[in-house]
Amino acid sequence: MKNKTTQTMPAVWITIFTTLFLVVAGRFLYIQVSGEVAGISIQELADEKRTNNYTIPASRGTIYDRNGMALAQEHVDYRLYAILNESYTTNPANPKHITDVNKTASELAPILGVEESDIAKRLNDGIENDKFQVEFGSAGRELTQKQKDEIDALALPGINFIEEPVRFYPNGVFASHTIGLTEKKDDEIIGINGVEGSMNDLLTGKSGSISYQRDKFNMKLLDPKEVIDEPENGKNVYLTIDQKIQTLLEDAMSEANDQYEPDRMTAVVMNAKTGEVLALSNRPSYNPNDIGTVENWYNDVIGTPIEPGSTMKIFTLASAIEEGVWNPEEDYQSGTYKATEQATPLGDHNGRRGWGKISYLEGIQRSSNVAAAKLAYEKIGADKFLEYLQAFDFDKKTGIDLPGEVPGQILYNWVDEKLRTSYGQGSTTTPLQLVKAATAITNEGKMLKPYIIDRTVDPDTKTVIAEHQPEVVGEPISAETAKETLEVLETVITSENGTGHNIYNLNDYTVAGKTGTANFVDPDTGKYKAGREGYIFSFIGMAPADDPELIMYVSVKEPKLEDTESGSAPVSFVFKSVMENSLHYLNIEPDKSSEETTKVVELPDWQGQKTDKYLEQLKDLGIEPIVIGDGEKIDKVNVEPGTEITKRQTIFVATDNMKMPNMSGWSYRDVMSFKDFLQLDLEWLGSGYVKKQSIKKGSALSENDYLMVELEEPNQPNNKNDDADEEKEED
After folding, report:
1. Rg of the chain's alpha carbons, rounded to an integer?
2. Residues 6+ apart with CB under 8 A from 14
3. Which letter, b or e, does each residue of 322-351 get, where b requires 16 or more Cβ atoms within 10 Å of its Cβ?
4. Within 10 A of 171 (CB to CB), how many other CB atoms are there?
């Protein structure tokens, strides 16, 4: 029995091993022939394991101003990482990994601004946990080119960088609510508001990819079988914003904001012939490069409706003229007005005293609430006046190509609401709704749609993908009515009765416009804010008055005023500075008559005078001096008392606490006069008007100080087909 078993068992084992061998051999043969295991291609799996795949991000498109000045562009920062694995080094004489933790930590720490021990711990932890590489947290991200160069100069083994695109805004606080912001999501830059948000898909583009085969050290093979799918870069967006006019506006608003500390400020400048927004800004604003704490995310020019105040009287006037019921010489009783038995009596802004029986023309000049209410309710008729309000589009959005627009609301159910709407209370509008409506006044009755996206361009082919053109969206009044309305609004500035007289005059250009003082609700009480400063002071001006090229609206909410100042002071400062310089920059021919600009007045004595009293005297004479400093007393003036001067002559008033004024826009002649006045050590570059100054505005100033200024000739900005070399140089 034992012999039989001994003879059969070897045969059994041979059979088993033969079967297993055939199975295994058959499996190998199958795999060799088919190249698959469990339905997975071995070749594809091997290729996948030894192939690197990387995304090639598309460059985000640049946002430009109308002339090709970059307002938002992609900028490269660097992310730091360290290789820890010794296997990455193929030549010991040229190590590619960290060889000395302590030295690396001590030399990186001062550049990254972190403790040496923190870096050493991060590196040692990575080595102990057998990590191939480590990064350095927030301290190692968003490094500048300067930091990268300093680290490169150390020649530390194992230290490497990854380029990371970030969004950069060259001008800092500059139309920030309009241009918008971005954030990073999964290493992709995403627009979240403003033009960055609304045009995000166009700006973003489409990422590409690259793949190649590599060895275990992550090095390309000799035949890497590289495949590249090129990215499609984001499109460039050109705005109607003019960088120079926007800069004028930002500077003026910042100065007014510092001096008057208002709760809110808004301003917008529009081309009166096309509807192009050339500048707009809000305060509070923010620097998109360094956000910090943001007090206001809203673009108030389009997104915060307010009671417009007396600026609404422009459209009450225009409606009355169009209806044929405007008689400028007709008298009415000012002071108070009660339209019906059910209506609440309303009054004029001077404590309801009025000015007795005056003409409707004088009523508009004096901004009489009674005049506006009687025109709307008695002359035009409440129902008909509502039709005009709707024809001026006060019941709808302007349609501007910006996100976040919120229209105002016409409150028109009760008699009191109908009356108040005529002079700008109760019903609300946004600043842009007012400016849009004003284009009918400046454009022969044709109302234009505001726009801020000028064109979109392919960055690679330079092909214009889309281009905006001016669009007429209504004709609420005739050309004749528009002309007469401008003539009446000009008297608001020129007439001694006008609320804008000697406040909104420009040196070289006539202005047609309307002042506004609006109530607003105090969120703490739910009632209208009380007090002399508790208003929104505003002005909408059009210049030159007979054929306006620009419309500008400015509003200042709750400014801190001196006892001698009116609410128009900060509004006037912004309007006059921006409008005058913008018209000159655009090469608009001055239209003031030689008689008006060469009228001779005698300079009053300044010796021993207090600053505010003397400035009041100059204001009454129509003289607008350049005040140097904020002292209480006058130190000296560049013209002797009693000298006969014209309104166009530049007068410097130095106080007993001199500070550097903002010289932006000064002519060469003004600069030379300033130099002689204070015996300054002056150097200058260029010609034309001041663009830069070496002593910052508001800095302490003394006689004989050194000052460098850069002057620049004003250019015509409307040529969109700039020479490519000039555009590149500007960028």
Report:
1. 36
2. none
3. bbebbebeeebebbebebeeebeebbbbee
4. 20
pLDDT tens for 455-514 read 999 998 899 999 999 999 999 999 999 999 999 999 999 998 999 988 898 988 999 999
Active-site option among 176, 198, 285, 310: 310
Whether the pLDDT of residue 731 is over 60: the answer is no
Question: Is the Cα dihedral 310, 312, 315, 319 positive or negative?
Answer: negative
What's the CA gap between 545 and 539, in Å, rounded? 15
Angle, alpha carbons 490-492-497 (nearest 5°): 140
Beta-ladder partners of 210 = 54, 228
User: Could you give the angle at the alpha carbon of 707 between the alpha carbons of 703 and 713, nearest 5°?
Assistant: 130
310 is catalytic: yes
Predicted TM-score of the model (pTM): 0.74
CB 213 within 8 A of CB 221: yes
Q: Which residue in 552, 501, 492 sits closest to 253, CA to CA?
A: 552
- Determine the 3-state secondary structure of 457 from DSSP: strand
Cα–Cα distance, 57 to 188 (Å, whole number): 8
pLDDT digits over 613-636, tens only? Answer: 888 888 888 788 899 999 989 989
pLDDT tens sequence across 409-444: 999 999 999 999 999 999 999 999 999 999 999 999
Which string of DSSP letters, residue by residue, matches 661-690? ---TT-BHHHHHHHHHHHT-EEEEESSSEE
